[in-house]
């Protein structure tokens, strides 16, 4: 019986393949898209700053019967952008919960951007096992030659 021939599939063209299937986007593509959308390093840093330096006390009026949430018109836009979630349990006046974005993560991102932390240690590249074995053989040979150079004690 003759062997079956295997058909090779043609590679999909990059025009029809989504970017995630093609691999990482080229740096130029990312910078072009960012410029088109108005995303700049300064704008990203400003947004991190809003989150990092937001003060939850600026969202409330402190009255004698407890804190009351200010209206949206009374709160600064920078403070509003630091709010992740507002939740009120129960209809018409239950417990109010205001969740802010993670200040620590924002502060760490700013500190990394400004170079306030030492660079992270990177994992050493793995050595080729054949090269590692050859290097060990050379080291053993060098040590044996050094031992052989000394006369034995009598």
Q: Concise description?
A:
This protein is α+β, with helices and mostly antiparallel strands and 154 residues long. The protein has helices at 19-22, 27-37, 41-52, 77-80, 103-113, 129-148; strands spanning 60-63, 66-69, 83-88, 96-100.
Salient structural properties:
two-stranded antiparallel ribbon, 154 residues, elongated, alpha+beta, two-stranded antiparallel sheet
What level of helicity do the residues show?
A: 40-55%
Q: Based on DSSP secondary structure assignment, what is the total number of beta strands?
A: 4
Order of helices and strands: HHHEEHEEHH
Largest sheet, described in full? 2 strands, antiparallel
> Rough shape?
elongated
Radius of gyration: 31 Å
> Can you list the strand order of the major beta sheet?
1-2
pLDDT averaged residue by residue: 80
Structural class: alpha+beta
Show the helix and strand layout.
Layout: H1 19-22, H2 27-37, H3 41-52, E1 60-63, E2 66-69, H4 77-80, E3 83-88, E4 96-100, H5 103-113, H6 129-148
3D structure, described in words:
The protein is of the alpha+beta class. The chain has a domain at 24-119. It contains 6 helices and 4 strands. It has helices at 19-22, 27-37, 41-52, 77-80, 103-113, 129-148, and strands at residues 60-63, 66-69, 83-88, 96-100. Strands 1-2 form a two-stranded antiparallel ribbon. A two-stranded antiparallel sheet has the order 3-4. A hairpin with a 7-residue loop joins strand 3 and strand 4 (96-100). Helix 3 (41-52) packs antiparallel against helix 5 (103-113). The longest helix has 20 residues, at 129-148. The radius of gyration is 31 Å and the shape is elongated. The termini are far apart.
